[in-house]
Design a protein that fits this description.
6-stranded parallel beta sheet
Length: 405
């Protein structure tokens, strides 16, 4: 993919605007600091993150916030444009009107992007807003695709999604699973893992293991929290006093609460949506993590469970087998198999050596592969490469490593 005379056209818009919803704009780094654009350059790299805001925390917004904090420590100037901006003052009333809120929110989002094009070197676009990079020219565009529904997306929108994705300067995904998915349609992606905040999530040994379980996926059909409830009903036949902490919210909430009633579950606590700063205390309160999605990629919640010392019992959806190895750092059961999930949970409860081996392997791997230092080094190296390539004279360019073309 060329630049300057041969550079691709129609790149994304971006911004490093600061608002109440932003991750923040940072001071410049000192000359020669790790955050500078190139060796010997005194100007820091300027990166704009385009991602969901933290108003309703989800996997993408949490990862964006963690990435911004880490980049700040490296001296990178970080800006943020939320894909779900809140309108100022009385105009927020418009966002309460069905259909109209979609229009006004989209207009605000596009405006925020367009007014800030010249303020960044790299636009780091989280996949919820990947289409935005065709709006206008920017120095370099990095698409960070994170959805576990990639195969369905590429199949349904093959004629539009793939050509658009070929316009970006780098396609980055959080797992080897998505690298393989994109390779099957001729797109080259690079894997940079999610990051775990070890200052938030503290490892605790659990001896003995109590029958206290945690589920914290949003109440959407593809996360199949119903499977967790059915598994817990089976567990309670063996451990009548077992507890299940259910954190999350979504359109399936009513159906899940009715199912819990139908199953006569005891000690199943629906906690609602939990703020990210309260989530570590939930992991600390539980002893086993249950996860039963039908579709997934690389759930940050599993990494948080690893970091907190909880043995993980999960289904084999999407990219999960790329991060959880059955019998080594967790237990895996087939999707939708509530009986298998209950049996696996009972295994870790009744076999202390297994539980200890799983959690020890998980935390060791977590510290090695998903620590902020390891992940941020990869992001910063990629940013430096993109900026250096974009600023090179056209006559000096060869094919950029990782180019999609």
């Amino acid at each position: 993919m060329g630049v300057h005379g041969g550079r691709r056209q129609g790149r994304t818009a971006a911004a490093d605007r600061v608002s109440r919803e932003t991750v923040g704009t940072l001071p410049g780094s000192a000359p020669g600091s790790p955050g500078t654009a190139r060796s010997g350059d005194t100007r820091p790299i300027r990166v704009c993150l385009v991602a969901p805001s933290l108003r309703e925390p989800g996997g993408q917004s949490i990862q964006a916030a963690r990435l911004a904090r880490g980049l700040r420590q490296l001296g990178v100037v970080v800006g943020f444009v939320p894909i779900d901006p809140r309108l100022p003052g009385p105009l927020q009333l418009l966002q309460r009107v069905r259909y109209l809120r979609t229009v006004v929110t989209s207009l605000q989002y596009v405006w925020d992007l367009l007014v800030s094009l010249a303020r960044c070197d790299i636009v780091h676009v989280f996949s919820a807003s990947y289409f935005s990079f065709i709006l206008a020219p920017t120095p370099a565009v990095l698409l960070n695709y994170r959805s576990g529904e990639a195969e369905d997306h590429l199949r349904r929108w093959r004629r539009t999604a793939i050509p658009i994705m070929r316009l970006v300067d780098a396609l980055v995904v959080p797992s080897g699973y998505l690298v393989d998915v994109f390779a099957r349609v001729g797109l080259r992606a690079r894997a940079i893992a999610n990051v775990v905040d070890f200052d938030q999530f503290r490892f605790r040994e659990r001896r003995p293991l109590r029958p206290v379980f945690l589920s914290n996926r949003n109440f959407e059909a593809h996360y199949n929290v119903a499977c967790v409830l059915r598994a817990f009903a089976r567990i309670q036949r063996r451990y009548p006093d077992a507890r299940l902490l259910v954190a999350g919210d979504g359109k399936e909430r009513g159906a899940l609460e009715r199912l819990a009633h139908q199953l006569n579950l005891r000690n199943a606590e629906f906690l609602g949506r939990v703020r990210p700063d309260r989530m570590p205390s939930l992991y600390d309160a539980a002893d086993v993590y249950l996860n039963a999605p039908d579709i997934d990629n690389m759930p940050g919640s599993i990494l948080e469970a690893f970091a907190s010392g909880l043995p993980v019992v999960t289904t084999d959806a999407g990219g999960i087998p790329y991060m959880v190895r059955d019998g080594e750092n967790g237990l895996i059961v087939p999707r939708g198999d509530d009986a298998g999930m209950a049996a696996a949970a009972l295994r870790v409860l009744t076999d202390p050596s297994l539980a200890e081996r799983l959690s020890s392997c998980a935390i060791e791997e977590c510290r090695r592969k998903y620590s902020p230092d390891a992940v941020l080094r990869e992001w910063h190296s990629l940013y430096q490469g993109l900026v250096t390539y974009s600023d090179a004279p056209a006559a000096e360019l060869t094919a950029r490593p990782g180019s999609l073309r």
